[in-house]
Amino acid sequence: MFRTGLWVTVLSIPAGSSTIHVYYGNTAATYRNDEDMTA
Questions:
Q1: Are 22 and 6 in contact (CB under 8 A)?
Q2: Which residues of 6-35 are buried (b: 16+ CB within 10 A; e: fewer)?
Q3: Are 6 and 20 in contact (CB under 8 A)?
Q4: Of the four listed, 14, 26, 27, 29, which is most buried by Cβ atoms within 10 Å?
Q5: 13, 20 in Cβ contact below 8 A?
Q6: Alpha-carbon torsion 26, 11, 5, 20, what sign?
Q7: CA 1 to chain centre
Q8: What does the alpha-carbon distance between residue 23 and residue 31 come to, in Å, rounded to a whole number?
Q9: Spans of all domains in the chain
Q10: Over 60: is that where the pLDDT of 39 sits?
Q11: Cα(18)–Cα(12) distance, integer angstroms
Q12: What is the pLDDT of residues 8-36, one digit of tens each?
């Protein structure tokens, strides 16, 4: 069994459903920062 701890900085999470995707060790994953969608 493996355990992982991680920390993220989230300035705000609106009420309702929210999804946070975490990719680790996937070299095919690309960085995405969409400030317009999170503001």
A1: yes
A2: eeeeeeeeeeeeeeeeeeeeeeeeeeeeee
A3: no
A4: 29
A5: no
A6: negative
A7: 23
A8: 10
A9: 1-39
A10: no
A11: 11
A12: 777 777 787 677 777 778 778 777 666 66
The token pair that represents 22 in the structure block: 């975490």
Question: What are the structure tokens assigned to 8, written together?
Answer: 């993220």
- Distance, CA of 21 to CA of 36 (rounded, Å): 17
CA atoms within 13 A on the CB side of 7: 1
- Beta-carbon contacts of residue 22 (< 8 Å; ≥ 6 apart): 6, 8
The first and second tokens of residue 31, run together, are: 């960085």
The CA radius of gyration of the chain, in Å to the nearest whole number, is 13
